[in-house]
Model the fold of this input.
Amino acid sequence: MSAHAHAEVANEHDVGSTKLFALVWVWLLLLTAVEVFLAYERLEVHLMITILVGLSLIKSALIMSYFMHLRFERLGLFLLLVPAMVFCICMMLIMFFPDSIRLMNLRPPQ
Amino acid sequence: MSDTELEGIVESPWSGGASPFAVNSKKLGMWLFIVSDSLTFSALLVSYAYVRLSTPDWPRPFEIWPAIAKSSLMTFILLSSSLTMVFAVAAAHKGEVKKTVRYLLATMVCGLAFVLIHATEWYTLIVEEHVTPWSNPWGTPLFGGTFFGLTGLHMLHVTIGVAYLGVIAWGFNKGKWTADHVEVSGLYWHFVDLVWMFIFPMVYLLSVNPK
Done:
């Protein structure tokens, strides 16, 4: 166990070279550039929001896995943190969509 | 993390058995804080989406120049500060104190630049365009409330982060604190960056003036 633990420590310090982190940074910048370009092109709002949320999720996954090291931690830590967070956010959205669409239908005709 | 310290974490049979996550308590605590804080921001973003969807006259005032250009620059600065933070953590684990402090200072400078550019943007909105949390010249007053609420809470996080990194840099330089402390402060900093990756598209890019 001890040898294993030491190997893990050594591994933790080795994983994620400067090159890898710089590459993740470049990808994050590229995805941001795509987002700004879409805003510049003034896409239709529904398409725009779908693409933007998708890209933001990819970007946050990159930040969490590499910059925040979650990819190099034990699976148990990931399972402790992420599913609960995603579940709570989904609960907010479940309450949100039906009600905001109901409100939208209550708008007086323009 | 020193080897003896880690042995304590991984192996010590505290009454419940060995630690299941193989991380120290500081790191686990920061992760739990980040999860709870991410729910605070999610709640704000969801409520912003809610009022926006149910309000017919939601303003879309931002022009590509200067508002979107400025916020894109802020995004670039924040992403770059995350990269310098990663380098600071790597240097700290190698025991290179001077390099760590330099990278931490670089991260703080980026954070400060972010806050300053954000402040000039707020200044333009408040003083020149007369937007307040309760009124604006374009449409529903909820625009100002959600805009200043979301960006203000994020700006507060960045400001606290800069102070936090300053304390860590000072303590690490003195030998008062270990590489673990630098790593945990890094987690917080990346989280602040992560939140901006949602605020920037939702608040700015979706409010580009359609004309």
Summary: The first helix of chain B runs from residue 3 to 11. Chain B touches chain A through 56 residues (CB under 8 Å). The radius of gyration of chain B is 20 Å.
